[in-house]
Design brief:
Layout lengths: L5 H14 L6 H17 L6 H20 L4 H33 L3 H8 L7 H16 L9 H8 L13 H9 L6 H33 L8 H33 L16 H7 L2 H12 L9 H19 L3 H20 L9 H23 L3 H11 L12 H18 L2 H4 L4 H22 L12
Length: 466
């Protein structure tokens, strides 16, 4: 069920119509939320409900066992992790592994694997990581396990963020589920803001840029124009940002209407003046997950500089693999690791620049690094990515982009918006009082009109495939 579909609008209308009658009845709320979330997820393929229920039950029981039988808590944790990683590997990585084995040994294992694991369950990477963090936190003593199975599945399957995040930690969400918080007028208005901005990012920006990106990257012939490819890669950078950030905004808005608070998942990453700052602003729930459950457990940078670099490389490469079972994603993660290592050694660029010229130079360097990495993320193969980069850095070709007006104008709008934030212009625009309220109402009415009349062709959110 897509957020940008009529079916979801009907689903959400029915859900919130019933939700308002739950009031302080916590059990009714949890049951309603769980059932609605199962319907939402099962809309794609009801068979995959058994998968999320199975892995969820394993983690639910493992967490209780960890707390009640501490003598064997490590064994219970390992069992939980093996179950989660095993299921994730079977459905997401078995084809990739078998394909590479076939290439090395000349076997036909991949055909046999695909007969069983042809379809990857939507959102499996997100809810698997969310469930894993629950048992890990219980093991570390940061969280007491819940014995209320409905509360656990309400947390695990919560439909606003189930299939594309943000990844919510149990220690942040479980207390909200059992508490009663009245939804105020401020919550309703704030949720409305998030939802409208989210739909604008997705349906107007991302969906209008999508044809540009598809035309460029899916063409069998690599266009022989540097400007064409720089434009296409910039278009993809804003497409994936607005697509994913749009989903996160809608999820946050829906949660706020329910009385829950999700953390910010994106904070204008393209204004970063260092790659470290970029990863503090991009997909924040995932980057902090890898920091807390991979990088720090490996030792972080506390065991020497060299070990710190190795741990960071492992974390970034695993992050690349999390995004997809392909060497292009591995290369994307490795490139970011290399750029981060260089940044650590040179201590340049940094987010702590006081000189505006140095800030601009740092920002420009980060943007180029991010765009180069995005080429591998979107390309059909590593060879395809290198062909594109070869043209990009040959600085030849004409300005004939051949895109059409719609996509280009929306890309310019979002670029101008990011420039305003980078220069701090948005902070100086502050209309207070009645005029401010009226101006905000006009602004959101205009956004809604643009969403209705200038939306692109509807498509799935990019991160559904991860």
């Amino acid at each position: 069920m897509l957020f940008n579909s009529i079916v979801f609008l009907l689903f959400a209308t029915l859900f919130f119509s019933i939700w308002q009658f739950t009031k302080s009845n916590i059990t009714f709320k949890l049951v309603l939320l769980t059932i609605a979330s199962f319907v939402f997820y099962g809309w794609w393929d009801w068979r995959f409900l058994f998968l999320i229920i199975l892995t969820g039950l394993i983690d639910y029981l493992a967490a209780i066992a960890i707390a009640q039988i501490p003598k064997y808590k490590k064994a219970f944790l390992i069992s939980s992790l093996l179950a989660n990683i095993g299921v994730l590997s079977l459905f997401k990585y078995s084809g990739f592994i078998s394909e590479n084995i076939d290439q090395l040994l000349g076997t036909s294992l991949n055909n046999q694997i695909n007969d069983f694991f042809l379809i990857t369950p939507v959102g499996i990477s997100f809810y698997t990581f969310q469930s894993m963090s629950y048992t890990i936190d219980v093991y570390k003593g940061k969280l007491k396990p819940t014995k209320n199975i409905i509360q656990f599945f309400a947390y695990l399957s919560m439909f606003p963020q189930l299939v594309a995040g943000p990844i919510i930690r149990a220690k942040d969400m479980l207390p909200q589920l059992i508490g009663h918080r009245k939804v105020t007028k401020e919550d309703t208005w704030e949720g409305f803001r998030f939802i409208v901005k989210g739909y604008f990012k997705k349906m107007v920006i991302a969906d209008n840029l999508a044809p540009i990106v598809v035309t460029a990257f899916n063409n069998t012939m690599v266009a022989d124009s540097s400007l064409f490819w720089w434009g296409a890669v910039i278009a993809f950078a804003f497409q994936i940002y607005c697509d994913f950030a749009g989903y996160s905004d809608i999820a946050r808005g829906l949660a706020r209407w329910m009385g829950y608070d999700f953390p910010d998942n994106f904070n204008h990453p393209y204004i970063s003046t260092s790659l470290r700052e970029f990863w503090g602003r991009w997909h924040i729930s995932l980057s902090t997950w890898f920091r807390d459950y991979v990088y720090i457990p490996l030792g972080g940078n506390k065991k020497g500089k060299l070990r710190g670099h190795i741990n960071m490389w492992i974390t970034m490469v695993v992050s690349g693999l999390w995004h997809g079972a392909a060497w292009t994603y591995v290369m994307w993660g490795a490139l970011h690791a290399m750029f981060l290592s260089i940044e650590r050694v040179l201590r340049f660029p940094t987010e702590k620049f006081s000189n505006q010229f140095l800030r601009f130079c740092g920002w420009l360097l980060v943007i180029v690094q991010v765009l180069v990495a995005w080429v591998f993320f979107r390309a059909n193969s590593i060879e395809h990515a290198f062909e594109i980069l070869k043209v990009m850095f040959s600085f030849k070709g004409s300005l004939s982009l051949g895109w059409g007006f719609d996509g280009s104008i929306f890309m310019l709008l979002i670029i101008l918006r990011e420039i305003m934030i980078y220069m701090g212009i948005d902070k100086r625009i502050n209309i207070k009082g009645t005029k401010g309220v009226f101006a905000e109402m006009i602004f959101y009415a205009l956004l809604i009109a643009i969403i209705i009349f200038f939306r692109g062709n509807g498509s799935e959110f990019i991160y559904f495939q991860f």
